[in-house]
Description:
By secondary structure, the chain is mainly alpha-helical. About 80% of the residues lie in helices and about 0% in strands.
Amino acid sequence: MTRKDRLWVAGLRTLVASIIATLVVRAAAVAILDIPTEFPPLAVPGPTVFFTAVGVLGATGVFAVVHRRSDRPEVLFRWIAAGVLLLSLLPDLVLLSGGGAGAFPGTTPAAVGVLMLQHVVAATVIVWFLTVRGVRVS
């Protein structure tokens, strides 16, 4: 199997696992917490699937570049992933402010907390599948 093929397989596994994990978080949160049905990011599964897929595809691309150019790609990728995770939480935090909450009806601290948890879950799965499981794309 070529390096490109291995990367595609790793990316696909990461994509499927991340989507499943974030959908499980969403389903559990909607079932257990009082998430308003009018809160668009959690009202239906579509936004979870879409934004998780975008994140995984981006992360896989970054991983491919880092793996090609770094002597310690797993370590560097973990640092990059941590930084991107922190940055990805900022829009969620803005939702908790007065102006941000007006853009999305049904915004509650619990709903925003679920969004943030989904970011953490997706990042954890991405890092696990691309580094810890030992994807070899060289």
